[in-house]
Amino acid sequence: DQQVKQNSPSLSVQEGRISILNCDYTNSMFDYFLWYKKYPAEGPTFLISISSIKDKNEDGRFTVFLNKSAKHLSLHIVPSQPGDSAVYFCAATDSWGKLQFGAGTQVVVTP
Amino acid sequence: KAGVTQTPRYLIKTRGQQVTLSCSPISGHRSVSWYQQTPGQGLQFLFEYFSETQRNKGNFPGRFSGRQFSNSRSEMNVSTLELGDSALYLCASSLENNYGYTFGSGTRLTVV
To answer: Which residues in A lie closer than 8 A to residue B46 (C-beta atoms)?
Structure first.
């Protein structure tokens, strides 16, 4: 049962424009959400996170938005750069439970 | 400090064999989790160990097992390998809970 869903397997965006990645979850017990970035042949690296008590968290070019009522979160990357081309995974947890991941979104930033 | 180390990086096995993968967490991290990554499936949770005890388990068959040693190093074993077990197996460690995961580079297992 996939409790975290990323419905867009891929996203192509021009350099300098905004990338918006979406993620939906079904478990209302999740209280912490994370985004990971993964390059081929490497493990995922932590990007940004947000607690359920917040609706927005910003770190440089990366902003995560959380809409608890809709059980939806999104990651905005502004401006997009070629080095941002990677697979992005959304993850959610209730801290002591297992960290559950979405299927990932492949982002390609074109010149 | 050293990151999460997984060995071996690549492995080729034949159907029916068994395999053991190793994970050394970041020093001081007591929680180790294992994930399977296959194309289109994202990261599927296998199990999590904390202080040598399995704390959480995913929905994988009993052929998949693991353990954690007193120094927090963890091993994952897959018996009677099937072609569908071909995947990237990732290990992640954290101090105690799921908030501060650091992943290793993974072991790429190919079953032929």
So the answer is: none
